[in-house]
Design goal:
alpha/beta, globular, 298 residues, 7-stranded parallel sheet
Length: 298
C-alpha cells in the first residue's frame, strides 16, 4: 500500500512510519519546508495549498497534523492555534483529495477522546454523544472537516487518548516519579483513556486495511484511573507513590486545560477495534509503563 502522511514528524508519526515500513508499505510525507528527498512533498496548509497530484499516487492518507495540546496554559491565542491548525490541515487534505483525478481509497484522520468531555460514571463507546468543553468543540469541527473527503473515500476518525511513549504527554512526569514525587492528580479517581505508542500506531495501520469507518476509539482495552496510571509509572521506576496534587492547584495553574486534560473523567472503550479483531500488544497500563521505562533506559 502507498501511504501519504501529513503531520508525521512527531512521536506517533515516527512510530507509524516504522511500522508501515516493517509491513512493506511505501510512504511519502507532506512537509512544510523544502523537501529533503523523493519521499517528501511540500504543502502549505495555512494557505490551503497542496498539489492534488500527490493524492493520485496514494492508496491512503493519514492525517496527524495539529498543534500540540501541551502548550500550557491555554491562552486565547493557543486555543485559536489548536483549532485552526487542525481545520487548515484537514480541510486542505480533504479538498486536495476531492480535486485529485484518482482519490485515495482511505483517509485516516486524527481525532481525540476530548470529543466526549467530562463524563463521570459513563462507559464511552463510539456511539456516545458529544460532550461539553473546548476540546469537544474542537474535535467536532475537526471531524466534520475530515468528512468532506470524496464520497468514495472511506474515512476513519482516530479518537486517540493519552499516548504512553517517549515524548508523550506523561513524559514530564517521569523525572518526578524517579525523584519519588509522583502522586494522585486531583484525587486520582478520574479515568484517563490511555494507549501505548506501539498500539496507537498499530491501530492506525489496522484502520488502513480494515473496513472500519467513522469514529474509532484508540484507547487501551483495560481502563485505568489517573491514580492507577501515575502509580504504575512510579512502580515502573521503583519509586513511591505518595504526594497528591489537589484539584484546586491544577485548576489554579492550568485553568480549563487542567480541567479538560487532567481532571476530566473519561472511561473510553475501544469497542470498534475490539469487535474488528484488533489485538493490543500492551493491554494494561502496567505493560505500557514498563515499555516506556525500557525505551527511556535504552
Amino acid at each position: 500500500m502507498r501511504v501519504l502522511l501529513a503531520g508525521a514528524s512527531g512521536m506517533i508519526g515516527g512510530e507509524l512510519r516504522r511500522q508501515l515500513a516493517e509491513a512493506g508499505h511505501e510512504t511519502r510525507r507532506l512537509v512544510r519546508r523544502e523537501p529533503a528527498g523523493s519521499d517528501e512533498l511540500r504543502w502549505a496548509p495555512e494557505e490551503r495549498s497542496v498539489d492534488p497530484g500527490v493524492f493520485d499516487w496514494a492508496d491512503a492518507v493519514v492525517n496527524l497534523s495539529g498543534s500540540s495540546l501541551q502548550h500550557l496554559p491555554w491562552t486565547r491565542a493557543t486555543k485559536r492555534r489548536i483549532l485552526s491548525s487542525r481545520l487548515q490541515a484537514t480541510g486542505t487534505l480533504a479538498e486536495g483529495m476531492r480535486r485529485a483525478d484518482s482519490p485515495p481509497a482511505v483517509f485516516v484522520s486524527g481525532s481525540a477522546v476530548g470529543y466526549y468531555g467530562d463524563r463521570p460514571g459513563q462507559q464511552l463507546t463510539e456511539a456516545a454523544t458529544k460532550g461539553r468543553g473546548f476540546l469537544a468543540d474542537v474535535v467536532d469541527a475537526w471531524e466534520a472537516a475530515a468528512r468532506l473527503a470524496p464520497p468514495a473515500t472511506r474515512v476513519a476518525l482516530a479518537r486517540t487518548g493519552v499516548v504512553i511513549g517517549r515524548g508523550g504527554a506523561l513524559t514530564p512526569l517521569l523525572p518526578l516519579a524517579k525523584a519519588g514525587l509522583a502522586g494522585p492528580l486531583g484525587g486520582g479517581r478520574q479515568h484517563w483513556p490511555w494507549v501505548s505508542l506501539h498500539d496507537e500506531a498499530a491501530a492506525l495501520v489496522h484502520l488502513l486495511t480494515s473496513s472500519l469507518e467513522g469514529p474509532v476509539n484508540i484507547a487501551g482495552p483495560t481502563p485505568a484511573t489517573a491514580g492507577e496510571i501515575v502509580r504504575a509509572l512510579a512502580q515502573a521506576v521503583r519509586r513511591p507513590y505518595l504526594l497528591p496534587v489537589p484539584r484546586f492547584a491544577i485548576e489554579l495553574v492550568l485553568q480549563d486545560a487542567g480541567r479538560e486534560l487532567l481532571l476530566a473523567d473519561q472511561l473510553v472503550v475501544p469497542r470498534a477495534l475490539l469487535d474488528d479483531g484488533f489485538v493490543f500488544r500492551d493491554p494494561t497500563i502496567e505493560d505500557a509503563m514498563d515499555r516506556l521505562v525500557e525505551v527511556r533506559a535504552a
